[in-house]
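tool_call: predict_structure(chain=1)
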Amino acid sequence: MSMTDKNVLIVDDEPSLRLLIRAVLEDDGWTVHEAISGEEALTILPNLTLNTALIDMRMGGMDGMTLLKEIHAKTPGLPVIMLTAYGNVGSAVVAMKHGAFDYLTKPADNEELKAVMAKALDYSRLVDENERLRSAVEATEKMIGTSQAMRDVKELIEQAGPSEATILVLGESGTGKELVAEGLHRTSHRADKPLIKVNCAALPGDLLESELFGYVKGAFTGAATNKPGRFQLASGGTLFLDEIGEMEQVLQAKILRAIQEKVVEPLGSVAPVETDVRIIAATNRDLKAEVEKGNFREDLYYRLGVLEIRIPPLKERPGDIPALVAHLLEKLGRKNNKKVRSVSPSFLDALSHYGWPGNVRELENVLERAIILSRSEVLGTELLPPQVRSLTASTTSHAGETQAGTTGLPPKTSAAPLDDAERQALITALEANQDHRERTADALGISRRTLQYKLKKYGLTRR
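tool_result:
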């Protein structure tokens, strides 16, 4: 709900009183909804976004007290103001003890009505802000890690979430780009509307177009009915375009128009459809480089990148590995019905020195494998796959051993040794899988496309 919205529901079976209150409140900037009974109010309530409600204590059918309880059950925190005749003030006081925000005697004085409504509006906005802040905390709690890089990501989510800005999330495969999108949606004012996710790499161009923009009956063979696209399904909410760097240029132009003009054209339609969505896009590609190569539209890049959030790869934050391991052990233990208490120091040391080309997703795969194969409550290095286990000795310096032994933390590593470790991890995984690309990608917990990118990066494509 926008901070400028002022929405009220009036429930009263007297048309003249509703008309009088509507006139005063609309003059004060309120959007007024009406119901002539408690039953009608409960019917329309799910379709309304309200700041407050005005309810008559005595009505035919459901009375005000019953309606008050029903509204609080369905929309907790909504301030409800009771309307009562002069002789029934005692009943209104009882209603306040049961959660009513305030009461007014009929006919209400115009200035008193405005004053009470202003107080209810302030209270409603305070409740909304508290809920937003609580959602922000819950959203970032899913992102495990206390390193400075992760703290920066969480802070950006909390700052950018409430805005309407289009955001570009950058990060390697397996770093948690979808978690960031979920966090941004939950901290936004669109959190009560849908978050619709589309993987742009999962569908060929023609299917992706119909998925995004929808189509009308008869648009092509097999189009027997109208089908809304993801833009329409996300109306009022957020549309997450994952792997947008894989999108064909023809579609890029249509996405650009949808962002700029806030309209889409379903396939086969000649009439544009208005859209109200916030766009969050993500990619594991260097879009600036793709723009320079002519593979990605420059104008779309700047439209998407109003704000960029870069998620660091796991190799840049080895200090977060212990916390990630603790979280994943609990999660994967429940999933596989096995109780695993902890990991051995040598197991954690091996994890801390590995390059993690597949990032957190690969770490999760390695831990799940170890949990499934484990016969005890403590995981040892014998449960690690060869590419992780073989790197421990070659990447652990004497200084690193001293630091790990005295502090219990993974040693500090520079970028070059981490790149060396990642390259060696790729070589080891390739050898373990007889250079079979698909099996190697599965073993590392990354996509085949990401594997190809990393092989090219380290000059291993001819293996």
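agent: Residues 7-131 form a domain with the Rossmann fold fold (CATH 3.40.50.2300). Proceeding to next step.
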